[in-house]
Amino acid sequence: MVKICCIGAGYVGGPTMAMIALKCPDIEVVVVDISKPRIAAWNSDELPIYEPGLDEVVKKCRGKNLFFSTEVEKHVAEADIVFVSVNTPTKTRGLGAGKAADLTYWESAARMIADVSKSDKIVVEKSTVPVKTAEAIEKILTHNNKGINFQILSNPEFLAEGTAIEDLEKPDRVLIGGRTTPEGQKAVAALKAVYAHWVPEDRIITTNLWSAELSKLAANAFLAQRISSINAMSALCESTGADVSEVAYAVGKDSRIGPKFLNASVGFGGSCFQKDILNLVYICECNGLPEVAHYWKQVVSINDYQKTRFVKRVVSSMFNTVSGKKIAILGFAFKKDTGDTRETPAIDVCHGLLGDKAQLSIYDPQVTEDQIKRDLAMNKFDWDHPQHLQPQSPTAFKQVSVVWDAYEACKDAHGICIITEWDEFKKLDYQKLYDNMQKPAFLFDGRNVLNVEEMRKIGFVVYSIGKPLDPWVKDLQVSI
Ligand SMILES: NC(=O)c1ccc[n+]([C@@H]2O[C@H](COP(=O)([O-])OP(=O)(O)OC[C@H]3O[C@@H](n4cnc5c(N)ncnc54)[C@H](O)[C@@H]3O)[C@@H](O)[C@H]2O)c1
Ligand SMILES: O=c1ccn([C@@H]2O[C@H](COP(=O)(O)OP(=O)(O)O[C@H]3O[C@H](CO)[C@@H](O)[C@H](O)[C@H]3O)[C@@H](O)[C@H]2O)c(=O)[nH]1
């Protein structure tokens, strides 16, 4: 029986390994992690991450051919194929701080694999890493040559959170990069055979190592660029009276452009886009390509601009001050159908409003109070370290309360900000919310989920990204 071990039981390691176990009953899969609470949660009824459909997959395989363990070294030693799916945060200190990928966790995993291995292994990069990481990993794995043959493959993951199970079950493509040597190609074939259990062969792409590593960064840069492009247009729409949804629809009808990923928003979030683009920018700089670096950096700059612009709209519409005013924040996760808050635009919006002394009442159906307070207290980029290495006692914000109901969050509020596009926010009784708010009652839709005209009929002063401006908002606008 082929044995797979995956180092890192996070958003990627957990679901991807559960899918392999489900589709390959002839393979034993063990997911290991240094975090004891995380492994305990994977072995319990309350999984550490919320992802539609994940519970069912885990329940079907756990204890049969899917195991979660903290015995990292034992399972790595026994495995034929070792996936590495550990954190690759943005560096906060030293060379490349604020841009380059911090490969501390990857390096320590690679050193451990080298130390405990007694048999040949295929080592698979599942984490998103800079181009040429495989070369460094190869050097680490072979540093104390014990006659063991390691083959390094790059097999980046393209799943999106909230649809991870769907994406894993029917991927657009699986990408496997390997050395062009006979041994390298044998390893590629072995990993291809795993995916071929359920992925059609024409969707399994094989390339050289560097193409696979770079394709992951490129794919995320292209996706994020679409969002920054439509968000840049949203600012122009507000100035001209065009409607960004109509523009996106018209543009997306061109089959060369396509309709997906053109939803204007308060800004993109999530653990990957910003981090991976900054990483790409750094690699371009290191390769003497400042113009290319600058081009991609703009995708992140426009995203920062969009978040700032939203906060300015809120403050300027409310007579240029939110000091002491209650503002309801509906949604904290970086997108719907996930409890993940990494790099969520909600953090920047909350910081912006708190900077103007607002009182925030936050509601998200999947994010805990503890998580929200930790996020608001954390330094930039600190979130992307294993949980036990993150700062432990967040500062309590007197200006922030976290509640478990949207109606409670909005009661007596001066304004509502919709930050995550949870379906339940479309179905709220807005008349009831309006009746229980201070007047004038403001509604700032950062996700374009509401019908602006209906909301205006109720009596709200409405701002919706990239939509023709409410006369009120227009009259009070400041330069943005
Ligand atoms: N989240 C996504 O949607 C997504 C998608 C594609 C790629 N990626 C990439 O995949 C990688 C993992 O992302 P994630 O979201 O799963 O992160 P995560 O923080 O959820 O999980 C990483 C896990 O690795 C563990 N870990 C760290 N060092 C370890 C070590 N030396 N030994 C054992 N365990 C260790 C941590 O405790 C943590 O549980 C990152 O490189 C990320 O960029 C993420
Ligand atoms: O039209 C759109 C689409 C998305 N978003 C926002 O963009 C962010 C990222 O969304 P999404 O890409 O759906 O989620 P992620 O889980 O971050 O997935 C991205 O990042 C992963 C990690 O690398 C990749 O594997 C995926 O392919 C890639 O889509 C979220 O804040 C979304 O709200 C928009 O604002 N407008």
Automatic annotation (TrEMBL):
Keywords: NAD, Oxidoreductase. Its EC number is 1.1.1.22. Gene3D superfamilies: Cytochrome c1, transmembrane anchor, C-terminal (1.20.5.100), NAD(P)-binding Rossmann-like Domain (3.40.50.720). Residues 328-452 form the UDP-glucose/GDP-mannose dehydrogenase C-terminal domain. GO terms for molecular function: NAD binding; UDP-glucose 6-dehydrogenase activity. One of its GO terms (cellular component) is nucleus. One of its GO terms (biological process) is glycosaminoglycan biosynthetic process. Transmembrane segments: none annotated. InterPro entries: 6-PGluconate_DH-like_C_sf, NAD(P)-bd_dom_sf, UDP-Glc/GDP-Man, UDP-Glc/GDP-Man_DH_C, UDP-Glc/GDP-Man_DH_C_sf, UDP-Glc/GDP-Man_DH_dimer, UDP-Glc/GDP-Man_DH_N, UDPglc_DH_euk. It catalyses: UDP-alpha-D-glucose + 2 NAD(+) + H2O = UDP-alpha-D-glucuronate + 2 NADH + 3 H(+). The active site is at C272 (nucleophile). Pathway: Nucleotide-sugar biosynthesis; UDP-alpha-D-glucuronate biosynthesis; UDP-alpha-D-glucuronate from UDP-alpha-D-glucose: step 1/1. NAD(+) binds at residues 8-13, 33, 38, 86-90, 127-128, 161, 272-275, 342. Belongs to the UDP-glucose/GDP-mannose dehydrogenase family. This is UDP-glucose 6-dehydrogenase. The gene is LOC112275958.
